[in-house]
Predict the structure.
Amino acid sequence: MKYALIQRTCSTACLLGLLLALSQGLSHGDRGVVHAQQGGSRSADTELSIRHYRRGNTYNNQERYDEAIKEYELSVAADPEMLDSYRNMANIHYSQGRYDEAIPNFIRFVNLYDGAPDTALRSALANLGRLLRDRGEYDRAIEFDLRALEADRDNESLVYLTGNDYLNAGESDKALQVYEKAVELQPDNAFLHRTLGRIYDDQGELEVALRHYRKAAEIDPGSDFYQELVTTTQDRIEWEEQE
């Protein structure tokens, strides 16, 4: 089943509030959901779910968050695929620091989401990965972190934040996954190749590191820094082979 989001017209003050909320990862906008079944008809459960969703939005806009949560819970009880209700519940819990409740709702939202990535999906994936990393659940986090990179492929800051979190936690294998995904998505980014090479370098995999240093130097031939990395790494490999 697919959902289309319809933005309703609101006042200037409402619009400013919505923009602020979106910047914080919390949607206060009163957004209707058209849940079309095959053949274009709606079931009674779907109609009930949409009514609860809209009531939840009304309470959400009024900052009556506990009442909004109850309406969203009734919405997904009527229709377990009402992804916007999961998203809004996750955002409310997240904004109030109730992360145990936010995580499962973020997961339901991102797993139900179907279509081209938008701001809501990118925000949900980034928040979900960060929450799981903060809890030390690295094996769960990496799945969503890689999906976040895929959904926001030009976001270098997300790459460095995520990769450094794993490095600082001693999870170098997952940091490698992050940077490997990053260079796959941004193959002409010299600094990403350099960073990936440095991680392999630190692990003693000099041949792999050299390959990425060479790629960085190829992308940015005017950089003395990258060329020096290539030269010194070649010298180290030759020195090790002579021992």
About this structure: The radius of gyration is 23 Å. DSSP finds twelve helices and two strands in the chain. The beta strands are 2-7, 31-36.
